[in-house]
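Problem 12. The chain below contains 375 residues. Write out its predicted structure in token notation.
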Amino acid sequence: MRSPRSRLTVSVLAIIAASLASLASLASLVSGSGVAGASAGAQVVSTTARSSSPPAYAVVGGNGRVFTFGGAGYWGDTSALDPRAPVVGASASRAGYWLVASDGGIFAFGDAPYEGSAVTPLVPPGYPAALSPPLVPAAAIMVDPAGPQATHSGPPVVAFTGDSLGSQIGVYSSLIGLPFLAQQASIPGCGVVGDAPILTPGGQVATVVPACAWWAQQYQWAVAGFHPDAVVVQLGYWEAQTRLFGGQFVNLVSSPAYARQVGALLQQAASILHAGGAAVIFDTSPYFADGTTDSVVDRFNEILDGVASSDPWVTVVDVNAIVDPSGDYQPVVGGVVVRAADGIHFTVEGVQQVIDPVLVPIAERKAQEVYVSGA
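Solution.
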């Protein structure tokens, strides 16, 4: 156990501002199209599984209104919901149907089950627009039977997720060329502990962005959209803060119950990310120079190791030992400045020259194992 030491206190609001400033530079490095204007034209879809004469069908308008003809069943529509995006596609079940909006939202009616949607929760007003991932408008919905994920074409896919440090690792690593296709799925400003208020080292109560409560949905979105062979997860900062839990402000050291809760959430994260067969790679948390106590970071890393010991598909990469080899916060390692001036984030050089030589070969090997097996 490494001893805690006093550090400069920075409010959470300043931390979030620093995160935004640090990640603003990433926007110019990540290409992607915005939401294109989707057609509000009508879609025609059969709504019966049996033959009929004349054929029964429904016409679905861009506003989600369903018009039925020839005895086709009517199970409801979205015309009264005022959806934020027009309906662009539909598909029938035996006694119901699905409608899909241009933003990837799914609306299920009748016996059509709802299994999720392609909508990312990282959109305003719950998440800053500047950090929202680029959205590609949906074009159609396809009904497909359940089955294993087949081996995809192209190179192995590795998704990077976690908090803003996870975003930095993914983006900065991609700049130097990687032996796999990298996809970015991080949630800057959020961990897996939701949107519970924080008690800053200075004694102030601060809030986090509302979308932090939807981290699980974002992880599901990443798995459903990227079909990764491996996922690299960098967490720890937000989990190591003092959070409101059970009516009290606690941390991982002061409250065993809260520590168990974080362990359960990390287990949940691993299960979500592994749902498509991907290998999960958790990075341990580095230390911080903003007042975050080293002993709490150590406790988080212990919990992370416990999750890995119970799940054979989880691997832990000790980023803490890589960037803080002396056992406490180090801004410079081997002559390379690895940490930003805020004492929280990584530098480009720190990722590329210090972290990547260890992390990338492990991610490549784990992704290749899944890719070859066709898991």
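Discussion. The longest helix spans residues 348-373. Students who got a different answer should revisit the alignment rule from Section 12.3.
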